[in-house]
Amino acid sequence: MDKLRNAIDGKQGQGNKVTTKSGHISDVKFEPNLPLLEDDDVPSEQYELDKLDEELQRSRTKKSLLATPSGMMRDKLDSLLNKRLEERINQLRIFRTQIAEIQLKNKRDQLAKSIEIKKVVDKLARTKQRLQDVMEELKQERSEELTQPREVRLSAANAVQHVKRTSVLPAKRPDAYHFVDERKSVVGSLRNEGEGNQWGIGITGNNDASQIPVRSVFRPRRGANMRLEARDWNEEFQTNIRRIKSRFLETKFTTLAKIGNMQEHFVQNVLSIGKRIVEEIALPYVQKSIKPTAMPLAFKVLSALDRNDVLKEFVYDADEWRPIYCHSNIVFQVAADDSDFFGGTEAASKALSNEFRAIEFLSKESYEHDVCVPLSALFCYLGHKILATAVLPGMADPKDMMDIFAKEDDQTETVATAWDNAKDSLQRSLRKLGISLNLKPHVMMVDGEQEHVHLVADLQAFIGKDKRNYLMSCSRVLPPEPPTYPIDSERYHLSRFMRPELLQLSSSPINADCFSSFVGKDARRDNANCRELFNFMRRNICPFVASYLDSHGYDFPDLIKSLASILHRNGINVRFLGIVGSYCKNERTVCMVASEMVARLVKSKLRKDWRSMVDEGKNQPLDSRSCTADVYSSLFEAQEKETEFWSNVVQKRMNEKFPGSLALARNRPWRTLCDMKLVIDRLSSMTGITFREDPWEIFGKRGRILAHDVIKTEERIRVVNLVPIECLSGFELLAEALRISDFDNKKKLAADAVRVFEQAIQHNNAMNLQAVTCCADAKMFLSQFLTFFDARASLDEAEELYRRSLCIRPQITETLLRLGDLHVQQAKLSRIEETAARLRARAGARYLQGMLYQWERDYATANKVVHKLDHLFQLSRSDFAAVSVASNKFSDFKNLNFSSSPDVGANAIRRSIGKVPVVEDMCMANCQYCDDSVLSYIIPKSKRTLTALDVSGCPVTSESIIVLAQLKNLQKLVVDNCLLIEDKALMEVFQKCTNLRHISLRSVPKVSNQSAFYIPKFCRQLQYFDMSHSPLITGAALNEIAQVCSQMVEAFAQDSYTMDDVPVISIGKNCPAVRTLDFRNCVKLSSLSIKSWKGRLKKLETLILEGCIRLDDAALLALADHEAFPSLTHLDLTSCDLISTHGLQEIVRQLVDLEVLRVGRCTQIEEHAVKAIAKNCRQLRELSLESCVGVTVGASVKIVSSCTCLEKLSFAGCHLVDDTTVSMMATNLTRLVELDVSGCESLSEGPLGNVIINNTSLTALNLYACRKVGNKTLRKIGATCRRLEALTISQSNKVNDKGIMQVVTGCPCLKSLHATNCKNISDDAKQLLSIQTPWVNFAF
């Protein structure tokens, strides 16, 4: 007992110290165990130890004992040694790891080096083998060309240059350029007597160099008057034009400023030299200060002596039709037709204008396709037109390709290969350019051999000595206008061409050589296509433009100033202004069109008088002013002279210049049709004439206009407007802002640049691509220095400008990439994370779109069109990085969806797996090229990662489906509409892929219960099952699945006509987690199955029972329990005829949280049930009451008054719905997305228009058989419903062309338009809409 008492006392103490093995006392306290009793079997040593502890406890003082020094030193030494040992071990591990890495790296470098050496050796071996194979052939074909390249080039260059200069073939074939119509004559094949086509492109001349002079390089003569400093315009222009595409803003705007300054200097040179050329036209050759480089043989002002001197060096053949000058590295071509090649100087001027217009629109396309056009300007002074172009380098020959090689081991083969590659590159560039211009490539027969023409036959395309591809003689790039008999001359088609905008409207490519000897084999078909497009313009587009002018004539009084641009944007030449005016019904519009026609006719007469004056040697300012005063006075002279001028000049020439003018005049005199003030204003602006005061007031005071009333006659000049001169100061300001580093100065300069660009756009460059994009760039740059809200506003304005530039010219790579950068900046300024993520994803999409368009432009050809997705997975690492910065959705392609691209190639799908080995979800729905070979390639590569696969609609068979058994991790399998799949393959898949949770077997006619029974055996975790439209899968399979797969969430059994109540009851008993059930058209389903669900499916949210004709009120009473179905929000009871008012009243009284309710075509529902819906279900978002007899005026009013959250509403076939209901709808419902009031014949336009105005988010609107609805409603639809996608307006006689046009032009998202049995819609409007808006599905 004493021992026990002492032990208890020791336990209540502070605890004991413990002696360690090292000898010192540890200060760790512990609770000693109770000593054992004496009778316990304990060793004596333990007893002695306890006894000694008790003695030490009694003798211990309050002062604690000190640890022995020897023990402390030993512990410290042990710890120090252990620490040093651990450090040494760690160092040894690090050294071992580094040594292993070095060894592995050396091994890898050696392996990579060996592989690279092997590749180089293989490549050299293949190259050597290829050279050996083609060596003999090349030597045979190129021996003569390489030994005498200059002579061969001379012949080819002379022939091509002759075609350029004369636009005709040599004298042996003077009829080559005559008008050809297969209905009037037979098209003959051309013959080439030499090798003129060997180095050029297109039809060339003969081989006798003595008949054709040497091609002039257009260098200034030594004796020429060189007052202006020569400048290499072409080299500077072509070098800088490529830098505009730079993504670095500083480089871009610095380059634009350089080009702008160069263009300004070019214009000054052209003005100075061109005026002198025009003023010296009448002088003899020896007296000219600027000598011509080439002149026609029939030039009338040369004396016999001068003619003999000039002919020795400068004059070409007798067919040359215009003099050519060269000064300051600029070629000046004067519009003169002394040889009567075009049928007069006016036609020659038109041909020269056509060449400039072709250069202007080709310049916007050519540098995108690695083709160069010269810097050009069109100069008009005193009635003479001059085309000024920069001097181009000479044509290259094979030996010019030698400088691209460092060594010349085998000179013959090397030069031949380089020359072939250069020609192939030129051909590819021309082919891509022709595709972008919608021109048809055609084949001609030359010397019995086929000649491929991609643009036009007599286009001069050559490789310059600077290794660039050049285009010249572009006047005939556009197709000619078809003839209207009697024709003016056999070559009238050389000066009358279609607009490029009209060419883009054609559904099929057009042959540019139509109605000529170059048209090729399919002459009849190509000419017919050209006529069809031309007739479409006259019969469809002209009336459309006329209606536009009628509707905007009063709104825009100055519309006459932009009349030409309106016609050009719609593909109509100004010479068809009379046809457009004949369709106009507004008198103000007719007056405006007539004034424009008279002004242009008088302008032609004035320029003709100026030319005659200059040809007579009268080139003084007073002479031109006197001529101008006479023409203006003739417009206001006394009655006799006025009648003579209007009858002999205007009335006589009007129909010749403007076809259709007789229909416009309608036997009325032109003097009464036009407004003289408009005529004078337009004439002065087009000719550059300035008066001291208003000429009308001068004539009123004096009765005549004199020469001193005319202040000056300005010259008119147009330059290729790639870079607007009005934006020059803006380019310089923004370039300076990007160069400096001061914050305040950057902001000020950027703001000034934005101001300059906005003024340029408002002035005359609203449709200029560079002006719009540069303004957007400036606004995006300025946003960096603004406050939060100002920066967001600036970015929004920049986005609008970028989108406008894409409307001007779609799919510009640089604009798309800039738009991606803008979305990235918008994402940085967004305060909502979801919005920022959406903007980053949009930026990534823009980056990909730009890259894909670049690939499309590079790889698309006439014979092989490569799909965009075929290049999606050829992205370089830098491109992937750029996309990843914008959006993490594009960083790694774990999810691939090809469903929106059904024509994607099999190679693209294979490459997607090869480049992306981490794919988890792949959707290939409806991919027509995804066959067994594709699946057999995909599955083995992605078997470790793929978890979801959708091959619905793909032409796969059971052979490839069996391969799916390798996907052990597969969780989702969709094989909808796979008509060739059988049970055996699916049984193998279900047996191996036990992790399947989503299985869809929709519309698989060869699959039966035999494979479906394998699902519950092996796939017990199934959550989604769809057996709709599969006739061999019955309710027995669904019953088995429902009994085993208790985790079922969604089940679909549409059109399962043999399914009864048993599987539905099994779902209610075994699947408590089910949320969606779709038993549409299960005609054997009765109310018994619905009753069995009570209290079991508390998570059910969506129940679709459409077409279950055996369901009655008992089913609704079973569902009418909020506690049993607390989550039910979507209920579809369409076409359940046995449902009555009582059942529907009970269910809407209990389920007040319903959001979607469809009870259409339920014939027993009365007014009380509809009012009950309005009273209880106020949270409804979708309601369908189609053909319900209970929808009366009062019931419908209650619906639209109470259910204010409705987004989709259908009153189809409810004949009692009238304007009262629609008026209440306009007041209370403002969230409508879909509205169906078809068959409501009593609705009028006023209330329905208010509904449309208050619901701008409408996407679908059905007004079928609403006979009172007309153009007024359609006008409101076009003005407000920007998101409308589907519209039905059938059986309405109040709808005509104007209303339909307003809907189509005002609803950019429109995809479907049904307007059947609308008698007032003309056939022309239907044809025009089907061609101009092919993305809309029309039903007329």
From TrEMBL:
Domain (Clu): residue spans on this chain = 193-485
Q: Where is the composition biased (Polar residues)?
A: 14-23
Under Gene3D superfamilies, the record lists: Ribonuclease Inhibitor, Tetratricopeptide repeat domain
Query: Which branch of life, at top level?
Result: Eukaryota
**Annotated segments matching region Disordered:** 1-25
UniProt keyword annotations, A-Z: Coiled coil
Coiled-coil residue spans? 117-148
Q: Name one GO cellular component term.
A: SCF ubiquitin ligase complex
Q: Which SUPFAM superfamilies match?
A: RNI-like (SSF52047), TPR-like (SSF48452)
According to its UniProt entry, one GO biological process term is: SCF-dependent proteasomal ubiquitin-dependent protein catabolic process
Q: Which SMART domains match?
A: LRR_CC
Q: Name one Pfam family in it.
A: CLU
Designated name of the protein: Clu domain-containing protein
